[in-house]
Amino acid sequence: MCSQRKLCLQILNLAILMTMWGCTPSVPDTPSGNSSEVTTETQSKFASAAEVTAALEARWSLDDIKTYCVPERRHNPTCQNLVTDVGVTWEGTLYENEPTGFDSISWYGTAVEGRLHEYSLGVSRGENYWLLEIGNVDSFDRQPRVAPDPSGPCFIGSAPPENQESDNSDSDLFVEPVKRE
Predict the structure, then answer these.
(1) Angle 46-49-54 (CA atoms, 0-180°, nearest 5)?
(2) Has residue 15 been placed in a domain?
(3) Is the pTM of this model over 0.85?
(4) Is residue 25 part of a domain?
(5) Distance from the first to the final alpha carbon of the chain
């Protein structure tokens, strides 16, 4: 009975190891011909908070931000935002000297060895907050999600009714979010 149990445990352990080995990404030992160019370009990007601000303004037009910032896409406070626990914290404000219709369009993030590591971009108006994206240097290679489905778990539109209430002064500007059962 004891040896049968040991055999079962060994088979289970083998299955776990095979699963883990099968899920490990394979990385070639030698870099491809153009990988040094990508690495050099990526490492030279975003050496200051001002560069990140300019890149985010190029990435997110004011029209895109207004498209994103509808009541149903307000950030659900039960979802985690970026925690700056490595490197140095950088921050910036987008469209600082332009009328935007928002109280703030700002980002914060971390820099490691003088380069952007990761960032969080958010918008606020009154008591309302929209988390546009959390990303890193590689995020700039992809288009931003300007109009994601508001039924996602980190949007107020999908939150339980008790988390949808907002005591904000901008309530006359918004249609109430859809109440979900």
Answers:
(1) 75
(2) no
(3) no
(4) no
(5) 52
Residue pair 92/50 in contact by the 8 Å Cβ criterion: yes
pLDDT tens-digit map of 28-79:
333 344 433 333 344 458 999 999 999 999 999 999 999 999 999 999 988 9
Domain tally for the chain? Answer: 1
Q: Is residue 33 part of a domain?
A: no
Instruction: Please check whether residue 28 lies inside any domain of the structure.
Output: no
CA atoms within 13 A of residue 100's CA, in its CB half-sphere: 24
Which structural domain range is residue 161 located in? 46-166
* Contact status, residue 56 vs residue 132, Cβ threshold 8 Å: no
Tell me, what amino acid is at 69? C
Q: Which helix (H) or strand (E) holds 91?
A: strand 88-93
Rounded Cα distance between 16 and 9, Å, is: 10
Positive or negative: CA dihedral 19, 24, 25, 28? negative
Token code pair at residue 48: 């200051």
Q: Which residues are CB-neighbours of 147 under 8 A, at least 6 positions away?
A: 67, 68
Find tokens 């037009």 and name the residue: 61
| Phi and psi, residue 76, nearest 5° | -75, 120
